[in-house]
Amino acid sequence: MATLGDVPVLLLLLLRVLLECCWALLLWPLRLLLPRQTRSVRGELCVVTGAAQGMGRLTALGLARLGAHVAVWDINGEGAEDTAAQARELGVQARAYKVDCSRREDIQRAAEQVKKDMGEVCILVNNAGVVFVDDLLSLEDHEIQKTFDVNILAHFWTVRAFLPSMLERNHGHIVTVASMSGKIGTPLLVNYSSSKFAAVGFAEALQAELRLLGRDGVRTTCLCPYFVNTGFVQNPQSRFVDVLEPEAVVSRLLSAILAGETLVLIPSSMHCNVLLKSLLPTRALQAIYATMAISFKTRSGLAGTKTSGEESQEPGAERGAKVRL
């Protein structure tokens, strides 16, 4: 408990905080206008999970074009090998590893094999994910478990495998591919949205922990895109926000990695949505979301009658009723 004698010290601390906040606010618009200072990833080893297709493949190949060596992880071994082959054509080292990111033992085994085959990892991209598009009561227990195993628990196991060497060298980068559903709750994606909220929290807490440990050379980036046209969620539509193309999202992610950005929302207008969520009452937010008219297909209607649907660690087809939110 502070005493009267502590008042001058507290005032100085408050003044320091205010000055730092003002400086940060001053730099923020300048960073948008001035060319960004970037680093090189040439020669560094990257692990990209869920890289057999979609955004994972584009990320692995994008890093390869920048001169980074790539370890391609995916439950689809053939797809992973195809990605690795394309990366090797770009003149870098690349290997494919068949990894089930829902299994801790599989992740630990693959991590040790990567270190043995290719060396210490500098960049880890946790991209693998699953989604089951349905209302909460229509989900099977194993689908909920799978969602959390892949979308968040796998991040713990991969980071615990590769972070120690990054800390020793005070050099590394951990990338969390999350979602705007991890910033704003999405109905009919309750399990997915919950797992992505956890992923956003994981990235934020990890970044704070690294700062506390004085390891400013180990960076983190959390990517939160709006709906991306990969088939992960089928036929998404909105009145005001266009569905994103994966190439544009990955291009933005790569620039964020090079610039050392901590949080990336795509499109950038989503920052306004997050701010409004903090400021407006629930009823006002519901009116805004209704006006946006977001819709996508689910495996079942709200009554919970299931049709076919498949799970994967990369976007898969989900068929069923189209639901407007």
UniProtKB/TrEMBL annotation:
SUPFAM superfamilies referenced in this protein's UniProt entry, alphabetically: NAD(P)-binding Rossmann-fold domains
GO molecular function: all-trans-retinol dehydrogenase (NADP+) activity; steroid dehydrogenase activity
Name by which UniProt lists this protein: Short-chain dehydrogenase/reductase 3
Swiss-Prot/TrEMBL keywords: Lipid metabolism, Membrane, NADP, Oxidoreductase, Transmembrane, Transmembrane helix
Lineage: Eukaryota, Metazoa, Chordata, Craniata, Vertebrata
Gene Ontology CC entries for this record: lipid droplet; membrane
Ranges of compositional bias, category Basic and acidic residues: 316-325
Main localization, broad class: membrane
Annotated function: Catalyzes the reduction of all-trans-retinal to all-trans-retinol in the presence of NADPH.
Family named by the database record: Belongs to the short-chain dehydrogenases/reductases (SDR) family.
EC number assigned by the record: 1.1.1.300
Protein localization: Membrane
Its membrane topology: Multi-pass membrane protein
Region (Disordered) residue spans: 304-325
